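Milestone M4 deliverable, item 7.
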Amino acid sequence: MSSKGGTALSRRSYRLASDADNPKVTGIVNEKLLSDYLQHVFPASGKQGPASAAYRKSLTFQDLGAHLEKLLAEDNVTEDSRDQIEGCLGPLTVVLDHSSGFEGLLFVDDDLLGVIGHSNFSSIRATTCVYKGKWVYEVLVSSQGLMQIGWCTLNCRFNQEEGVGDTPDSYAYDGNRVRKWNVTTTNYGKSWAAGDIVSCLIDLDEGTITFCLNGQSLGVAFSNIKTGPGVAYFPAISLSFKESVAFNFGSRPLRYPYYFYACYLPLQSPPTTDLIKANRLLGYLKTVLSTSIDTQLVERDSGTWQIQGDPTILVTLAHIFNHFAPLMCKVYLVEDVLMNFLLSILEGGGSVDEHPLIQQLLDLFWLLMEDHEVNECLKQLMMSLLRAYRFSPIIPDLGFQIHYLRLTTAILRHEKSRKYLITFDVLRSVVFFYIKTPLRVKEAGLDELIPTTWWPTRFDKEGKDERDTCEETAEERLRRRAYERGCHRLKKRIEVVEELQVQILRLMLNNKDKGTGEASRYIFLNKFRKFLQENASNRGNPTVLCPPEYMVCFIHRLITAIRSYWDEGKRKSPGSISSEDDLAAKANIIIDPAEIQASSMDDLDEDEETGAAQRPSGAVAMGGALARPSWLSSPTLGRANRFLSTAAVSLMTPRRPLAPPEKVKVRTLAVEQRTEEDIEGSHGNDGLLLGRPLEEPDQPITEKSLLEILDGVVMMYNLSVHQQLGKMVVVSDDVHEYAVALKDTEEKIARCPSRRLDILEELQKSQKVFAEKLNHLSRRLAWINATIYSKEKMLDVYWLLRVCIRTIEHSDSTGSLFAFMPEFYLNVAMNSYSALKNYFSPSNCMEELPGYEETLTQLAAILAKHFADPRIVGTDIKDSLMQALASYVCYPQSLRAVERIPEEQRMAMMRNLLAPYEQRPWAQTNWILVRLWRGCGFGYRYTRLPHLLKTKPEDANLPSLQKPCPSLLLQRHMAELLSQDKDMAASFLNSVLNQLNWAFSEFIGMIQEIQQAAERPERNFVDTRQLKVCATCFDLSVSLLRVLEMTITLVPEIFLDWTRPSAELLLRRLAQLLNQVLNRVTAERNLFDRVVNLRLPGLESVDHYPILVAVTGILVRILVDSDKHGISRAASVLLSDPCFQLRSIQYLLGEGDAGATSADQKHFSLHTCNVFPSQPTSEDDLCPICYAHSISAIFKPCSHKSCKACINQHLMNNKDCFFCKATITGVDDYTKPASS
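Output delivered:
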């Protein structure tokens, strides 16, 4: 046997020890001692009889080969193969039938055992069937969606709607819906989750089918199944789009072996003879490791064994490996023999460093096995570890996960093995960085770890949690503290797993390998690039895409590993750490304005042609009409992209004197052609990574690889991490909703009359259900808070935000570099701030982060500058920036941050907001101006519209539902700009009036159509989209009126000082629009009234109050609060307008005719308006259909009641009463009698 190299023994010594024609080799030790040693290692079996005694006397290396062959030949027993077991038909190797046994579109793995659904409902069966006996196979569930797993006959015909279990001779278990299927369906089993193992057992002697979940029987699912001649059952599955599983028919050891299932056999027989051989050879290997040769044989601890170049031991091992190596290429033996042996080495506990034997064994593998054998062995070992880790059940101490991660760490500590294993698809190793969330809390042992549960019990009027611990009762305080202690225990156990995961990543990122060839970090970097490219392209086989939940865990471990390596590098140059910035000190990111200035890329543009040629074909939708590459974002494509890299071009650079900048020669190489020097740069070449001017000869080149990985981290966050962070918040929302429901139920129980025992019983049942659900969810939330929303994870996201902010600042300060910055940096800056504000609270508070206010101000400056940056031409990113700024000004803290940015930037922002609306998207900027005014206008201090106060908001955290927080500073800037620049003021106001005219006209047209549809006898259903557009036009009209109110309040001279050229024209246009609005909205029994009274779902915001108080605010400002000349000018213009009607003003003020009947008094007026209607005092006042609005309608002739919204929606399609099914002939307004 040959080897491509060894660690402690030269190839020449190894060959000398191997050749049988060199008898002097045995003279290395005493001949008798050698014979005793070999007899000790390879004891003869008792089957050899008396003659074996003489044979043992002279056992030498020359005889060892034959002796070993003879010992192993004894193991060639007759296997219990399927040929000898009646009841199974088909190939000996059982796989999925991808040639004829499927329906629909599926992706099948190369090993024909894994499958992903790629159509509505795809089905596939195996190549082997059973007709007699007891059989079992396992399914590893990779996703928890809709699947039906079980057995079917050859006669079953499936389609895109019907799968396994939907035909007479097929039987299935569905853990998604927790049901069993055989044409009909009933409840069965438990819900499954990704990472579970389903075992499918069939007993054809008894005619039963049973399923197990993670080794626990779910009971007999089907009995008396059809058996007999011509009936045979195939393993089969039906699965919906993008669901995935992997089958194990016996090609690998069953996770829950067949002896566990009481004589059930796997469909594929295990390699019994090879198993016996492998275990025997492993026993010989253990004996060698635990025996040392001195003057006699000495037993010793095998854990301290090392290769010491002893020819006797090495030749002995070579004979063992001659037989052992070929067996270690088989997946079954690797998993059953080798992996279990390596795991047993680590069972003693202690750190991985305390078990050097695994390193020594891997040295032996590379020394005594062919390269292709050791490669295949390591590949199968790593795949087995991945499967074992992914499908390990969760127990309180996470013991299984820790066990497999410790072995992975031990293997990756071996340099040569690590370099080979990193060449695997990075996606597979990402599994190691994921900690799955348990869906079944009890099985995961969380009820033992967190015995006491707690959830918020105090809520404000809008349903928000009031975190005032002062009002807690003693019992609540004890429960909360006990729950927090349980959460802390859980977090500590999860941190052990996370630390092991970071160790694995640190090994992969090691760039100080002692061997030859590329360092581990560069191999990882190449695979990482490919990983990002595949996940960014959204093309190709979905099997290569990394699930978002994996990506979240991966990004946190990667950030931790990057920062630890960065810290190590900076500790070697302690002068680089600055105390100016708390975060910069922690992350060792240094900001030096001088460097930012000096590292400008302007000096690179030697000539325009060269600069244009080197510019990547699509470096983001910025800076001119640059085309976008097929998968934007690879941080490795464009050299200029890499020049910027992340924050690091200037952020992560030690302070040093600046040399004059030099020109940089640009190199481009295909990814496959890049060497380590190309990536990192060396000597006179700065590498492809950053292309930085050669002004920093003492900068460690290793920093650049970390920067490229950091680029990838930013890109990963943009790809899927942010969406997943938002998705997992749903558990916290569920806890909140159930807590509100439980509190409501408890209040109803307290109010329930003692005579109504039936109602009390139902309420108590509801109370029990809510409490059980809350116990489950609160424990699950503890797990999610520890793995996803912990303080440490929050600091990671905050660090990423800081990196993006500094990168954007740096690229902007260098001018031309901004065009090359990937747009996802802007996205991640906005999204990470949003995540910190919305997803990590209330468990962690953003205000407690280091440098929080400074970061807010920096982000505010970026948003204020770039939301109207002409260099940004991508519509998506422009919209995102606009929305981020609009959200920013809704919250007091972030609004104050906007006010803290330099005055010059504030003025520039306001100037952009006041640009004419016709030339750009204007709705968002108008909304920003409205938010700056809200709280100052007439009747404009409300958070929610007064008529909606009785209803519960869908999401009280929406920016539009935040309390008013006007900015007097920005209002003052707006006043200065409009008063000083007359042309800008005129163009801005003309555009606002134009848009108001359009929006209000569109709104009136739409409500006419809605009214006509509602009045038709057939009551046609009004399109929901039409209702939404109608409400949007109304909201736009109100917001434009508020901007006009704001302008006329801050700068009244624009309208009233007729020395200004456009003042009179603007005032006449304003009066005309105000009169149109008043006439349409205040007229008696008009169109607007009728549509408002319909109370259609989707038109809740359409009401008299918001639009009329906005008009009133403008009228008050020009007719009441102005000086004498202004009032007379405004009054004369208003009265001279042809549309003016005094009756509209009277209706608005509530000054109707004295003889008006009560029916005429129903219209809205400021006089009768109740801005703060009383809350319903009891449930009897609420609509019994929606329980959201008060009762406002009574039906004829049956006199049942509901709110208008519910009855109007119902009458669109049906004229029968909700309750008694009588035909409704009319609907009248209902007002609760005062006496009741």
